[in-house]
Amino acid sequence: MYAFNPNALMLMMWVAATDMSARASVVLRSVVVLLIMGIRWFSS
Fold it and tell me: CB 23: neighbour CB atoms within 10 A?
């Protein structure tokens, strides 16, 4: 399906790494938002 020249492989690895870091940051943000909402809900 793909022609694996080194540049495409490096690009795919870079995209995978940035995708993983983006997913991690989104998960962290959602966890923080849930914690803040939970604290507000419990304190009210």
Answer: 10
